[in-house]
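Morning F.,

Quick status update on the modeling queue. The single chain you submitted on Monday has been processed. Sequence for confirmation:
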Amino acid sequence: MYIYNTMAKTTTPRKKAQAPSGTEQVKEFIQTSKHPLKKAVEEIREIILGADKRITEHIKWNAPSFCFNGDDRITFNLSKNDYILLIFHRGAKVKDNKSKDPLFKDTTGLLEWLAPDRAIIKFQSIEEIIDKKISLKKVVKLWLAATAGS
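C-alpha cells below.
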C-alpha cells in the first residue's frame, strides 16, 4: 500500500504492522485466558519449552501449540474446564505410518496412545503437573526425537 503525498506529488510505501511473534501470541493468549487451570497451562508451557531450545510456539486450534523443525508436535486442548489435554501428534498433514506399534516405548506411563503416532496426556491439577514434571520433559524429548524426521 502506498501513501500519496499531495505536496510533493510522490508516493511512499506504507509500513505494514508487524504480526506478533508466536511467543507473543501465546503470552497474550494465556494472559487473557479465563481457563480455571491457567496456572497449570503456564507450568506445562515452561516444561515443554525447557525440554529443547529449538521448540517454538504459536496459537493453533485456539490454544498454544509447540513446533519442532517448523512442524506442530504438541498442542493444548483447553475445551474442558476441569482438565487439560496435551495432544502429541506429527503435524497437520497425515503422515504415512505403516507400523501398528507406538512410535516409542513410553516408560513414564504418561501417554495414552490413540494411534501409533498420536497420543494424549490429561492433567487435572497443577500439583499433578509438578509431580510429573520430569516425566513430562522426558516424554517431550522422546516425542521430538521420534517425530523429527517426519
